[in-house]
Each structure stands twice: as structure tokens, then as C-alpha cells.
Amino acid sequence: MEDPGAQAVARVYADGFLQAAGDKAGELLEEFTSLQDDVLSKNADFSGLLMSGLLGRDEKLRLIERTIAPHASGLFTNFLRVLARHDRLDLLPSILQEVHVKHESAGGRRRVIVTSALPLSDDAQRRVYERLKATLPFDPIIIPKVDPKVLGGLVIQVGDTVYDTSLRTRLNQLRSRLRQRSLYEIQSGRDRFRHST
How would DSSP label each residue in the chain? Predict the structure, then answer.
């Protein structure tokens, strides 16, 4: 479970990153994503040193100067220095996620999580995209997920809003309606019986 306080801090740094980047936001976002995907994700030891409490601030700053600064832009290196000085390098993955979401939103796009029981084919994803694009006031970025519990149909999540057209949910709704109808019929039968005696 994500720490809401840490996510709030990550959002603040994401805003700062995008403001500092200005019209170079796309380039800096690529640089940030490359650091995460090509360096930190593939080098657990380096990631552990940079993001954990094993090293102090000054040691982390020296590590950034020796390993990242020679290969990164000045703006991105300064961003990492600020995070190191404030002991926030552990938030790099959360900040990157927030930067992606905010950058997409600024470009009129938003992520839409589409969950299905089985992986969607390219054609099915295209049809879902076209339906969502025609319905939503933004350009959807489809994030496919697979959950066998869905049984059939789709569960579509846009931000905090969930549109559930899954077979599992429909069966649960049908079960609930049948239960309510049965209770109503039992109650009605009791009432008729009382009045007839």
C-alpha cells in the first residue's frame, strides 16, 4: 500500500520537475525514465546505494557526481542533487510515475486501466481505445491488466472512477436482485397469510 504522505511529496517534486523542465519536459522525462528503466531497475546494488539509507547525503551527492552527472543533462543532474540534499531519492519511482501522469494530462491524455479475464488482442485493444476516445473528454492511454476473477467483460478505471461491466459483477448484481425479490415474495406471502386468517 502506498504511503499517502509520500505520494503527496512525490507530487510536489513532480510539479517542480515539470516546471523546471518547461518546454524540455519530454526530453527530461525520457532521461528520467531511462535512469529508472535502464539503470536503477537493472542494477539493484547501485539502486540500493542511491535510494536507501545506506549512504549519507554527501556520499549520495558524490555518487551522483561520479556516475550520473557525466551522462545526464545539467537540469536532470540538478534535480537529483536536490532530491539527495532533501533525502528524497527513495521517492524516485513515485516521482517518475507522477511526472508521467502530469505530463500526459497536460498533453490532453490520461491513463485508463482496462482489466480483462484474458489478455486483449491488439484488435480488441484498438476497439476499446476507439470506444473510450469517442466517450471520454481526453485521449486515453490504455493500460491493459489481466485478472481471471473478472470472468468476462471489462473493468475500466479512469482515475478513481471504475466502470465495471464484468460478468462477475453482473452475476453478483443478479444474485442480489434475486435475493431481494425472494425476500419481497416471502414478506408478501406472510402479509397475505396474516390478512387471510
Answer: ---HHHHHHHHHHHHHHHHHHGGGHHHHHHHHHHIIIIIITT-HHHHHHHHSSSS-HHHHHHHIIIIIGGGS-HHHHHHHHHHHHTT-GGGHHHHHHHHHHHHHHHTTEEEEEEEESSPPPHHHHHHHHHHHHHHSSSEEEEEEEE-GGG-SSEEEEETTEEEE--HHHHHHHHHHHHHHHHHHHHHHHHHHHHHH-
pTM of the complete model beyond 0.70:
no
Sign of CA dihedral 94, 36, 50, 28: negative
Write out pLDDT tens, residues 16-74: 999 999 989 989 999 999 999 999 999 999 999 889 888 899 999 999 999 999 999 99
CA-only gyration radius of the chain, Å: 25
pLDDT confidence tier of residue 173, bands split at 50, 70 and 90: low
Return the pLDDT at 167: 59
Protein fold of 4-104: Peroxidase; domain 1 (1.10.520)
What pLDDT is recorded for position 1? 47
Cell of 12: 510536489
Could you tell me where in the chain the CATH 1.10.520 domains are found? 4-104
